C-alpha cells in the first residue's frame, strides 16, 4: 500500500512498510502524520487547511496522512526520540492561520 499526502497539490507519497525507517529528524526526510480525529476543534482546522469535506467519515480520515512538508518546520514538531517525529498538539497544516495567532486576536 502506498500512502499519498492528503494536502492539495502535494505529491509526496510513501510505502507504509518504510514509515518507521523514514521517521527521522534529519532535514529533508518527509514524515507522514495521521489526522487528529480525537480532537474535533483541531480536526476542523485541518479540514479547512486541506479543503476537505467536513462530513468526511472518520474511517476514511484514518486512512489519510499529511506529510511534514505541509507543516511549519521545525515549530510544529517534537522529537521524543532520535528516530521518532511527532506533531505538536497545536500543529495545523499550512494554508490556514497558525492557531497561536488566532488565540492572540481573541
Ligand atoms: Zn504533503
Automatic annotation (TrEMBL):
Record bears the keyword DNA-binding: yes
Stored SUPFAM superfamilies: Glucocorticoid receptor-like (DNA-binding domain)
GO molecular function: DNA binding; zinc ion binding
Keyword set, alphabetical order: DNA-binding, Metal-binding, Zinc, Zinc-finger
InterPro entries the UniProt entry points to: THAP_Znf
Domain THAP-type: 1-96
PROSITE patterns xrefs: ZF_THAP
The protein's name: THAP-type domain-containing protein
Amino acid at each position: 500500500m502506498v500512502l499519498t499526502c492528503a494536502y492539495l497539490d502535494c505529491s509526496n507519497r510513501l510505502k507504509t512498510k518504510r514509515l518507521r525507517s523514514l521517521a527521522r529528524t534529519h532535514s529533508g526526510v518527509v514524515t507522514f502524520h495521521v489526522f487528529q480525529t480525537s480532537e474535533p476543534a483541531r480536526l476542523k482546522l485541518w479540514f479547512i487547511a486541506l479543503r476537505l469535506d467536513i462530513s468526511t467519515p472518520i474511517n476514511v480520515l484514518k486512512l489519510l496522512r499529511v506529510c511534514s512538508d505541509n507543516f511549519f518546520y521545525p515549530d510544529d514538531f517534537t522529537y521524543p526520540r532520535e528516530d521518532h517525529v511527532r506533531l505538536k498538539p497545536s500543529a495545523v497544516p499550512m494554508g490556514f492561520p497558525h492557531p497561536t495567532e488566532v488565540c492572540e486576536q481573541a
